[in-house]
Amino acid sequence: MDFYVSALANVLTFGPLAAMIGATLLGVFIGALPGLNPVMAIALLLPLTYSMEPLVALAMVAGIYNGSMYGGAIPAILLRIPGTPASIATTFDGFPMADKGEAAKALKIACWSSAVGGIASAIALMTVGPLLARVTLFFGPAEYFWIAIFGMASVGVMVGSDPIKGIMAAVLGLLIGTMGIDSLSGQARYTFEQTWLLGGLDLIVVLVGLYALPPVLQLAEKCDLKGLSAAQLKLTDVPFKRGEIRGLFPTWLRSSGIGISVGILPGAGGNIAAFLSYNAAKNASKEPDSFGKGNPQGVAAAECGNNADNAASMIPALSLGIPGNVVAALVLSALTIHGLQPGPQLFHQNPGLVGGFMMEMLITSLLIFLLGGAVATRVFAQFQRLPGVLLVPSILILMCVGVYVINGRPVDLWVMLAAGVAGYFLEKVNVPLAPIILGMILGPMAEQSVRRALLISRGDATELLTRPISATLAIATLLMITWPIVKAMRSRRAAART
Amino acid sequence: MERRQDIVLGAVFTALGIAAAWMATSYSGAGGLYPMVLGVILTLLGAVVAARAIRSGADKERVLIGAPVKMVTAIAAGALYVALVVPLGFYTASFLLMLFLPIALGFRQGLYALIVAVVFMGLVYLVFSVLLEKPLPREALVSLFGTGG
């Protein structure tokens, strides 16, 4: 209990509090603009947090994450354009509600449901995270190696539509992670006699390029020259029927559970949580046919589910050092920026910071109730009147500021540009980008762990497989990689029979 | 289209894997073994992707670039901006990008673009130079007038 009281005291000071309020508003704004997403926003923000206190930097990440997951519902409801991939399921009933003149009501339900999901998820993080971290006390180098490999394998297999391409992306990330001076032997690897490569490719530079440039290029291709008219954004208030809000409670409870479970799984994102929650609400309903035609339960399920994924996805990231999704990977990057080593020791070495971040996830979810209501929603909806084509240079400029301030090197701008163009094409050919970043983050940990394990065992590779936890993790990794292959073979056989 | 793209993708990753593994042979000890293993795995995975595409009979349509002219314009503008940001200075290069990229992409309301550019650059200046005090590439115009005066 003292752990949380002290964390709360640290967070309720001017810096983190102001950062949480500002970032939650910024997050709602970013989510409300189709084409911008939380990953891009956090990637752009991270380089600017170098000089900030770690808790202020993490407060901004928490605010943008929670705020934007709700903000995505605004265009999803008003225009049937999901602001973020996680709000696709919100369009199913949100837009029909808006079509019936109930847009304000749908937005209120989305706001409350997002807050409820976020709060439930933060509570799960605060209770399960520390318990899981205790398990890591039994970990040695072999276990750390398998944890890193399992994390990458699961994200590689589960993100995207093609497991082989996912694993290929993870291996590419691991290779990029080996660039620069090897910390154990001191030799330079893949530096091409360039001094700026001695420290390897900067994670944030690659990350900004990979995650911010492809959406910019897509905005340029889409070339929205007009924006929306005022009439399209008109909101009229419709009062709730008696018992309607109380009727949402079972949906919130169910969707929170689903969102949290999905969040803990590495690789599964908010969009999966939203779809599963939506389907569960539909199956549990006495009127399943009303779903897709403007049922408020559909909006509540989708929004609660996608926000319940948020803090839960930090559970493996903070306790084991495995980022379950890209935002969790960005949080680990934020910790790296501030000189903290992500990994199983994080909980034990920096309890104040980890506890503070968990509190920030909780408080920013509460802030959605206060800031994300009708007034803020109406204000942010108006930004959709801005032609999308004007966002293209704006984001490019923010990318350049973010990258340039890291090292003050123009060469980083070229690396960012190259990574972005590569990311654009890789996404188009179904190669997921998240495993590349995870490979870059977890690669050094995997390499150092395996080499330490081999040093301790005097070169005996069986050491990696004979300890109970490492053997379990190795089997889990093998199953994770082989399962999609077995599944594909089965479906091929079934297709051949029919 | 999808088939051809996957063959090229597989070939690119195979080439990358071979190059990485070959370069790793010059690194000594475990510091070389680890990237070499990764290079070999990347080669195999790339070969699997290419082989699978070659064996596949179906060739579904998959659009690589939706609007090639707009996309190339945006990349070229980005490259030009990166090339000019240091010689011209951050604010000059950024202002020019804000003004001319929308027009190059087909936006025809010059005054609207100018107002948005002025407001946006003002906000960027307030946030990054005044509030956060981030060091950005120096303005060539200011240096010119500074030395001249």
Q: How would you describe the overall organization of this protein?
A:
The complex is a heterodimer of chains A (498) and B (149). With 498 residues, chain A is mostly helical. Chain A has one domain (2-497). Helix content of chain A is 71%, strand content 1%. Chain A has a two-stranded antiparallel sheet. With 149 residues, chain B is an all-alpha fold. Chain B folds into two domains: 2-55; 68-148, no CATH class. The radius of gyration of chain B is 24 Å and the shape is flat. The mean pLDDT of chain B is 90.
Q: Give the low-pLDDT segments of chain A.
A: none
Strand-residue fraction of chain B? under 5%
Strand pairing plus helix content of chain B: what structural class?
Answer: mainly alpha
Number of domains of chain A: 1
Radius of gyration of chain B from CA coordinates: 24 Å
Chart the SSEs and their pairings.
The complex is a heterodimer of chains A (498) and B (149).
Chain A: H1 2-11, H2 14-32, H3 38-45, H4 54-71, H5 73-79, H6 88-99, H7 103-135, H8 141-158, H9 163-177, E1 180-181, E2 188-189, H10 203-222, H11 249-264, H12 270-284, H13 296-312, H14 314-320, H15 326-337, H16 346-349, H17 351-371, H18 374-382, H19 391-407, H20 410-428, H21 434-456, H22 463-466, H23 468-497
Antiparallel strand pairs in A: 1-2
Helix pairs in contact in A: 1-17, 2-4, 2-17, 2-18, 3-4, 3-10, 4-13, 4-15, 4-17, 5-6, 5-7, 6-7, 6-13, 7-11, 7-13, 7-14, 7-17, 8-9, 8-21, 8-23, 9-21, 10-19, 10-20, 11-12, 11-13, 12-13, 15-21, 19-20
Chain B: H1 2-24, H2 30-55, H3 68-88, H4 90-104, H5 110-131, H6 140-148
Write a concise synopsis of the structure shown.
Chain A has 498 residues and is mainly α. Chain A has 23 helices and two strands.
Output the keywords.
heterodimer; A: 498 residues; mainly alpha; two-stranded antiparallel ribbon; 23 helices; B: 149 residues; 2 domains
